[in-house]
Amino acid sequence: MKGKLVRQKLDAEAFFAAGRQRGDQTVQFKSGRTTIELKFSNLDKIYWPDEGYTKFDLLKYYYTVSETLLPYLRDRPLILKRYPNGIEGEMFYQHNLEDAPNFVDIYSRIDSDGKQVNYSIANNLPALLYLVNLGTITQNPWFSRVQSISKPDYFAFDLDPGDEASFEQVKKVALEVKKVLEENGLTGYPKTSGSTGIHIYVPVKPVYTYSEIVPFAKKLATEVAQRHPQDATVERMTRERKKTQVYVDYLQNIEGKSLASAYSVREKPQAMVSAPLEWKEITKRLQLEQFTIRTMPVRIQKKGDLFSKVLKKRQNLPIAKKKR
Prior knowledge:
- The protein has 324 residues and is α+β, with helices and mostly antiparallel strands.
- It folds into 2 domains: 40-141, no CATH class; 154-312, Alpha-Beta Plaits, CATH 3.30.70.
- Helix content is 26%, strand content 20%.
- It is built from 8 helices and 15 strands.
- Strand 1, helix 2 (12-17) and strand 2 form a beta-alpha-beta unit.
- Helix 3 runs antiparallel to helix 4.
- The termini are far apart.
- The model is unreliable at 1-7 (pLDDT under 50).
């Protein structure tokens, strides 16, 4: 048995290049003089029944795009949304990660009940793939980093269509958000949600608290809804919204909430991916199904990282300054 286990310890590059893998495998990741061994389990488990995509397919996607994805996770606590049996299996959220290996960084804080919560952080490739191996299909990072945990370096609008609203309406509302941001001297960056909507991120200097950003985001979202009352709403209660409207959700900017990161796979049919966009792509031709675990690596090779300015651009908000 010992000899058999040694033969299964494959180099990561060879492992992911060898085609679909089955069962359990131990894979080695090398960084300088350090070697990390990571055991992947149930690699042939079906995660997307209609498409036949397996757990290995998910791991390989994240391995392939990791260089582009990891900057969006670095130093950010993650909320794990785990699907250990695929998208049709039971899901559960996990904030507290106990007994994580030492290559998975941890951010600890005391919650409102006085209990310590250990949030995982994916600061390297083995950490990312360890969390994916747990059944974490989507990566959901906080809007702030541990170095300035109460002050995010971006805020976002989640455009969420009602059951009878079209994606054309989502695109119309997205372009209005762009316009309202520009009127306030700000630049936003869009990406598909990977589900049914569009996310628009607005990078800012990490000097504003969540409690300062939320009312400002509400003000902008309300302006969008007032200009397009047939298409958009900021009504929080689902029962009070029209099914034909797009919800301009600014409440994801509350501390501790999160959205799917750029380049994350979603637990949706076709294994759609949250794909950064150029504003000029938001036309009638744009469809959510264009972006999947099969197409996204090619798109990255072709267009590069369209979301990079979200991490680099630092904007001031036109709000009353407080003593900081």
